[in-house]
Design goal:
globular, 5-stranded mixed sheet, 19% strand, 14 helices
Length: 404
């Protein structure tokens, strides 16, 4: 199903502009909209009436008087329609149902095991979508569509997940995920790289703030990045999923786990894989650590074991995490020196694992950033946490309402 069915809900270009301005603000008066848009009073009045009748916006009371009649305030109607957001990652897939205010109404997650092939996951998603619609008494005609933020590389135009690495199940190659979900659900489906949907979510959540240039980095099994400028995702010539992880930080460094990867690549030093590898190596050397009481075989050490030991301030684990975070901070400084974002949002398992990694990495990055302290950058874990990818996928669908 073509996404034009979403964009055509607001057929008038000027109406799209006004609706987008209202969406970007909590509430806004007609006077403010006149100043922002430069439209005539008659044109703006007509557009506001059309959007109100259509149910896209609501009158939400009156603003403060400046001497005359108190101005009517307008806001987006969150109940106009509903959107599904889907995250497909290597360790977890997550489905959320939200209204147009991006308020989460329901959610469901699935662990990505060796049995979670595309066909199995799609069937679970379709069943869960139908259950959520029934549970919340939502007519399918009120659903704008389903957005998908997936591990790349992806082909956004064809809606295809191309050749992602490190999926535990087979079959994740050239998956026409949008076509399959549209056929099963009868609603439009849109696809993008998960890092892009995550930063879309964070950018939308912070839409009333003054940050114009945001950088997002997801640190987990691999490293993924994206950037937003003026509310728009910056796209390259192709989807370079995971390319930030191939940043060379040591030319004669360790070989990458993938033969096509670079020697001395950042993700060989700062990723779940790198941390697990370092912990296993230390155990094999006989280093004293709580980890030896958690597993019988060093090869069985996982990131969860490492996090358990970190909570007990195990000296070896603190050393491993600090070293990985230091390398990550070096890579982060390289990005800051090239891209100059105002704010950097860090997400993923490595960031969620505790303050040690986040604080160490950001402090290293600041020390190695050129023009500091004249150039000030804000670091954040983001406002949406691990739901950013799925929520951002829903934002991607909602944004189609104002697409020309």
């Amino acid at each position: 199903m073509n996404v034009d069915v979403i964009t055509e809900r607001i057929p008038n270009r000027k109406a799209k502009e006004i609706y987008e301005r209202i969406c970007r603000q909590t509430t806004v008066s007609k006077t403010e909209l006149l100043e922002q848009s430069g439209m005539t009073v008659s044109t703006l009045t007509r557009l506001l009436e059309e959007l109100t009748v259509q149910g896209l916006i609501l009158e939400s009371g009156f603003g403060a008087s400046t001497g005359g009649r108190r101005p009517i305030l307008y806001e987006k109607n969150p109940a106009y329609a509903y959107v599904f957001g889907l995250e497909i990652s290597r360790t977890l897939s997550k489905l959320v149902l939200v209204d147009l205010g991006m308020k989460k109404m329901d959610t469901r997650s699935w662990t990505m095991t060796a049995e979670m092939t595309p066909d199995v996951l799609i069937r679970l998603i379709v069943d869960e979508v139908q259950k959520m619609l029934s549970k919340h008494n939502i007519n399918p005609s009120s659903v704008l569509g389903i957005g998908i933020g997936a591990v790349g590389p992806v082909d956004r135009l064809s809606g295809t997940i191309l050749e992602p690495s490190y999926f535990p199940a087979k079959g994740w190659r050239n998956v026409e995920i949008c076509r399959q979900l549209t056929e099963e659900l009868g609603i439009p489906a849109l696809l993008d790289n998960g890092a892009n949907t995550a930063i879309l979510a964070e950018s939308w959540h912070q839409r009333t703030q003054s940050f114009k240039h945001l950088l997002y980095i997801h640190a987990g099994i691999g490293l993924r990045s994206s950037m937003v400028s003026e509310g728009k995702v910056i796209y390259g010539a192709v989807d370079m999923e995971g390319s930030v992880g191939q940043m060379i930080i040591q030319t004669d460094g360790v070989p990458h786990r993938n033969t096509s990867g670079n020697y001395g690549a950042l993700e060989s030093y700062a990723s779940l894989y790198a941390i697990e590898k370092a912990a296993r190596s230390a155990l094999k050397k006989g280093r004293s650590t709580i980890l030896s009481h958690l597993v019988d075989d060093p090869e069985h050490v996982t990131y969860l074991h490492v996090m358990e030991a970190l909570k007990k301030n195990d000296p070896l684990v603190v050393e491993i995490i600090t070293e990985a975070a230091t390398y990550f901070g070096i890579g982060l400084a390289n990005l800051l020196n090239i891209l100059h974002p105002e704010k950097v949002i860090l997400g993923g398992p490595l960031i969620a694992g505790g303050e040690l990694f986040f604080q160490t990495a950001t402090q290293v990055a600041i020390r190695k950033t050129y023009y500091y302290p004249a150039y000030q950058v804000v670091f954040s874990k983001g406002q949406l946490g691990e739901e950013a990818l799925a929520i951002g996928a829903a934002v991607m669908v909602m944004d189609q309402l104002v697409r020309l």
